[in-house]
Amino acid sequence: MILDGEVVIVSGVGAGLGAKLARRAAAEGAKVVLAARSTTVTAEVEKEIVAAGGEAVAVSGDVRRQDDVDAVVRTALERFGKVTGLVNSAYSHPGFHDLLDTPDKQLRRSLDIVLHGALAMTRAVVPHMQAAGGGSIVNIGTMSTRKPLRGEGGYAVAKAAMGCATQYLALELGEHRIRVNQAVLGWLDGPGVRFYLQMTAGARGVTEQEVYDEIAARNPMGRIPTDEACAGAVLFLLSSLASEVTGALLDVNGGEHMPS
């Protein structure tokens, strides 16, 4: 098990990637702290992990609130004694608009959650990772920062800022044996994409399968990567298998975008 003995906080657990990631991390031996504003999903995932013989605890928290951030980390320490891993996946999309048409309030909210929330969580865990002898932080990015898609500008700007922060944190925290990377994800075949397929098919008068096939044809593997499959890349970056990887922005998109 590649995460045996690690204590991993997954910040921003939703029904898609976050939930899949938490389950897989626990299956790989990690003790998992599931943090989200709503505990509807996290409580269910906690039950599933415990029923399967793993260890997990769900905590309600908003990354924009310092007290909530502190409570998440405090819960990890009280329950499991240390923190060695953090996944920053808290999500906020300002809506599909051209960038200059994106409502300022919504854009600032995305930046507060995606960038400032990740920095707050990172700031809170670093002293405890130092005390544990090191750790790994993985930020969740988006292919929209690599391959612009009209309507995604506000979301991409927040994730691009997170990508820049990832490399600076890797530079600054390396001396403490803390690695920082970003998994840059593309289309994820989970609840969000399934809703998009349904909505688009209805608007265009075609089948959901036709919409799926159009998207899948954009990458060499001919499919939309699933949440669960992409979670594997995050687990890799969290684990000692990636002991020499830091400051990386790893593309995980089935080859739809191949950086030069």
Describe this structure as you would to a colleague:
With 260 residues, this protein is an alpha/beta fold. The protein has a single domain (7-188, 225-251), classed as 3-Layer(aba) Sandwich (Rossmann fold), CATH 3.40.50.720. Helices cover 48% and strands 16% of the residues. The protein has a seven-stranded parallel beta sheet with strand order 3-2-1-4-5-6-7, with helices on both faces. The two termini are 33 Å apart.
Radius of gyration: 18 Å
Would you tell me which CATH topology applies? Rossmann fold
Placed side by side, the strands forming the largest sheet appear as: 3-2-1-4-5-6-7
Name of the CATH first level: Alpha Beta
Taking all residues together, what is the mean pLDDT? 96
Instruction: Tell me the number of helical segments per DSSP (H or I, 4 or more residues long).
Output: 8
Q: If classified by CATH, what would the architecture be?
A: 3-Layer(aba) Sandwich
Query: CATH superfamily, please?
Result: NAD(P)-binding Rossmann-like Domain
The overall strand count is: 7
Structure class = alpha/beta
As for the number of domains, it is 1
Please state roughly what percent of the residues sit in beta strands, choosing from under 5%, 5-15%, 15-25%, 25-35%, 35-45% or over 45%. Answer: 15-25%
Low-pLDDT segments, ≥5 res: none
Helix-strand pattern: EHEHEHEHEHEHHHE
Report the principal-axis shape: globular
The oligomeric state of the chains shown is single chain
Describe the sheet with the most strands. Answer: 7 strands, parallel
Ends distance: 33 Å
